[in-house]
Design brief:
By secondary structure, the protein is of the alpha+beta class. Helices cover 25% and strands 37% of the residues.
């Protein structure tokens, strides 16, 4: 009985972490539009759908190593532009303004948002955290 229970749990755990390669047209429409608007010149190396018990996410990796993670509704969650900068218009204006005040020459290379905050990484390796009202709440240098 114990062995059967362990088998069921292990097969369920394997199914919970189900990555599947997909084509770009299998991404949510909102994600496709986002890529066309902000990354029109970038070539996509691959896209994948990642399912777990409670959620579905989509990852898109470009040939220049930049990555975008989308939620199941097509909203971006994380953008990592390793060798370039996050395109203008993605970073909220209030965050862009604060960065310009504190670090006028710095560029945003990564941004991550969730239900609590925005985390921004700059090309000078400084990481800033903003709450959902765009107040700066942490600096990690």
């Amino acid at each position: 009985m114990l062995l059967a229970g362990l088998f069921v749990l292990s097969t369920t755990a394997v199914r919970a972490d189900d990555d599947k390669a997909i084509t770009v047209d299998q991404l949510p429409q909102k994600a496709q539009q986002f890529i066309k608007k902000y990354f029109p010149e970038e070539k996509i190396a691959y896209a994948k759908m990642d399912r777990d018990f409670f959620d579905t996410k989509y990852d898109v990796v470009f040939t220049n190593a930049s990555k975008i993670e989308f939620l199941k509704n097509g909203e971006w969650k994380e953008i990592d532009c390793r060798h370039t900068v996050v395109p203008a218009g993605i970073v909220p204006a209030q965050i862009t303004k604060k960065i310009a005040e504190l670090y006028p020459k710095a560029k945003v290379t990564e941004i991550d948002r969730d239900t609590r905050d925005y985390e921004v990484k700059l090309d000078n390796q400084i990481e800033l955290t903003f709450d959902l009202k765009f107040n700066l709440i942490d600096i990690d240098d």
